[in-house]
Amino acid sequence: MPSIDMKLELVTLIACDVDAEVFTSDKMQERFESLFRIYDDQITFQMFKSFRRVRISFSTPEAAARARIELHESEFNGSKLTLYFAQVQNTGEDVDKAYLAPPQPVKQFLISPPSSPPVGVVVHVCESETEEEENEARPKMKIVQTRRPDSPPKVYN
C-alpha cells in the first residue's frame, strides 16, 4: 500500500455510550459539557440521543488530544466514558491517485439493435416455390417399432 501524505486536523471527538441522563436532564448536560470546557472555551457539542453519542468539536487539535488523553475511559455518572477521534471523510478531489479508478464514461447509452430497421434498408423476401416443393417431395419418416429388451434374470436367495 502506498504511503499517504495526509495532514489531518483532529479537532473532533466522539463520546460513545454516554449516559441517557445527559440527553434528558439539563443539569447533567451542563456537567458533561463542563468536563470538556476546561480544555477549550470555543467548544461545540452535538447530541445524538438515539445513538447515545456526543460529537465534541474543539478549536485546536492540541485541545482535542489533551481532552482525549485525560478523559478517555474515565468515570462519568457511574459509567465509563469512551472517546474517539472522528474520522475525516475525503471528498472526490482528495481521493488518492495511486489507486485504480473506473474509466471516464465516454458512451452513455447501451448498444442494442434498433427498434425498427434503419432508413434505406432493403428487405429481400424469398418467394421461391422450390422450397415448398422440396418439403412436399420428401415423405415423412416413419418411426420403426423395436422390441423391448428382456429383463435381467431374477436371482432368488
UniProtKB/TrEMBL annotation:
Gene3D superfamilies: 3.30.70.330. It holds the Pfam family Calcipressin. One of its GO terms (biological process) is calcium-mediated signaling. It comes from the Eukaryota. GO terms for molecular function: calcium-dependent protein serine/threonine phosphatase regulator activity; nucleic acid binding. One of its GO terms (cellular component) is cytoplasm. SUPFAM superfamilies: RNA-binding domain, RBD (SSF54928). InterPro entries: Calcipressin, Nucleotide-bd_a/b_plait_sf, RBD_domain_sf. Inhibits calcineurin-dependent transcriptional responses by binding to the catalytic domain of calcineurin A. Could play a role during central nervous system development. Belongs to the RCAN family. This is Calcipressin-2. It comes from Bagarius yarrelli. The lineage of its organism: Eukaryota, Metazoa, Chordata, Craniata, Vertebrata.
